[in-house]
Amino acid sequence: MVYSGPTCSGKTTLAKHLRRIIPNSVIIHQDDFARFEMHPEWDVPDWDTPAGAIEWPLFVSFLRKFKTTGMMPLDRRRLDYLTTQKDVQMRDEIERWYRDSFAQLELDIVKGEGERIIWGLVDGFLLYWDEDVINQLDVRIFLRAPHEVRKKRREERYDPPHYWEQVVHPAYVEAHFELFEDGDVENGKPTGQKVGNLVLIDTLEMGTSDVVKRCCKILLEHAKSLEVGR
């Protein structure tokens, strides 16, 4: 399962909720594969331009190995300081219901197939730029938040002056314009061309509990469809 979206759209908050709900789940942070180059025009560290922001071959290799083994290497570094988020609570009854639903799914599969599900919750802001990465992703969700909301949240991270308009937002448009009709990353609908079966969630239109609920429903339906197809 995967969820991408622009910086400061709520991806890591969602990841933490889902990890708490889903048994045998681990978060794979794309930020752990971050690198940077100096921006050629603005002469500042560039963490956002797609071609240079991620160690792409290493990231693709990692995803392939995880899908084969279901195991996280012990030597993966964590860059949590890049993804620090405020803790957001959700409704207890929703969390309990979906935790029980995933536990029952796990029990049914173990009884029927003798197998164990390992859920890889891939969290990243550039998951739909590289085709080799896209091909490793089974469920594809995109969290979208309004421009001004993202800008305010990002500027709270103490970026250099004008970094948003000079680097962050242009890089986001470059990486995602192909995903949406007319290249409209703010309001366009998914084209389904570069990324098939993309589920778009406009996070500001939903509360945290509803976003988690929708993602859980999508994951359960996907897992059950795989069982039916066996």
What would you report as the Rg, rounded to the nearest angstrom? Answer: 18 Å
* β-strand amount: 5-15%
Count the helices. How many?
8
Question: How can the largest sheet be summarized?
Answer: 5 strands, parallel
Identify the CATH class. Answer: Alpha Beta
Distance between the termini: 19 Å
Low-pLDDT segments: 79-86
- Structural domain tally: 1
Q: Can you identify the CATH superfamily?
A: P-loop containing nucleotide triphosphate hydrolases
What would CATH call the architecture?
A: 3-Layer(aba) Sandwich
| Helicity range | 40-55%
Number of beta strands: 7
Which strand order does the major sheet show?
Answer: 2-5-1-6-7
Q: What can you tell me about this protein's structure?
A:
The longest helix has 22 residues, at 92-113. The chain is an alpha/beta fold and 230 residues long. The chain has a five-stranded parallel sheet, with helices on one face. A two-stranded antiparallel ribbon has the order 3-4. The chain has helices at 11-21, 50-53, 56-69, 92-113, 131-134, 147-155, 163-176, 208-228, and strands at residues 2-4, 25-29, 37-38, 45-46, 119-124, 140-144, 198-202. The chain contains eight helices and seven strands; from the N terminus they run E-H-E-E-E-H-H-H-E-H-E-H-H-E-H. The chain has one domain: 3-Layer(aba) Sandwich (Rossmann fold), CATH 3.40.50.300. A hairpin with a 6-residue loop joins strand 3 and strand 4 (45-46). Residues 79-86 have low confidence and may be disordered. Helix 4 packs parallel to helix 8. The relative contact order is 0.22.
